[in-house]
Amino acid sequence: MKNHITTEQLPISSPLDLAKPQSAKPSQSATVRLEELSTLSTQYSRIIIIGGNHDRALDPSCDERDATLYNDLDARIAYREAFDNTLGVTYLCNNSTIVRAGDRMLRIWGSPGSIATSRQTAFGYTAGSMAEELWEQTPKDIDILITHGPPLGYLDGDNNLGCCTLLAALWQIRPLLHVFGHVHQSRGRCVLKYNSNQAEYDTMMLSRKKREEIDAEEVKYTPPHLRAAGESSGAISMPEQMTKSGGEGLY
């Protein structure tokens, strides 16, 4: 389990949401990390976590390759069962949960998916029909959305690794809060208005993404995330009211 933070660094809040990578493969340290999170139930009313692109042990589709390589199929199954059954921890994988916040009930949806950049990507999906199928299943009446991958154009790195289909889904859902991770260097936060300024910015980002895909198909251009080296394409500035600030990868 990746130790991006220690339990001592976690803020006191209710509930606690984690959208960062949790583990690469089943191991004793990963199990210990899960147990550490469960002990925080005295500080947090709910602990909600999702997987990510490094969490191959949580993705059953990775078993055929990894279990053969590590001879650990039983450990992988037990590891997933632990995530489902650990007291005080709610593990979301394209499903929802409801939490109480004061006198309000909030519906939270969590998904571990992100755009696949290699065959080693856990919970990876490709643009097009796979992306549409994934985000169409997300309910429109949720209050908080937790995803591993970012939407296109928002805290998704200089190479814009975000998902355009997820961006379109946000316009339909318009959650009170969207928490995500994946691009480590782009942590921060944005406030989205879903107004004409944002629509113009999103349209520019979608247009550029489409041009990159067309050029890639015609072998005129290699998208940044597939290059071994080279300069990034020019960045498009966000409208002023959506400028990111330092934080924890949320908006």
TrEMBL record:
Domain Calcineurin-like phosphoesterase: 43-185
Bilayer-spanning residue ranges: none
Region of interest called Disordered, as start-end residue ranges on this chain: 1-30, 228-251
Pfam families tied to this protein: Metallophos
Signal sequence residues: none
Highest taxon of the lineage: Eukaryota
Any GO molecular function: hydrolase activity
Comp. bias regions, Polar residues: 1-12
Source organism per UniProt: Venustampulla echinocandica
Gene3D superfamilies, sorted: 3.60.21.10
Protein name (record): Calcineurin-like phosphoesterase domain-containing protein
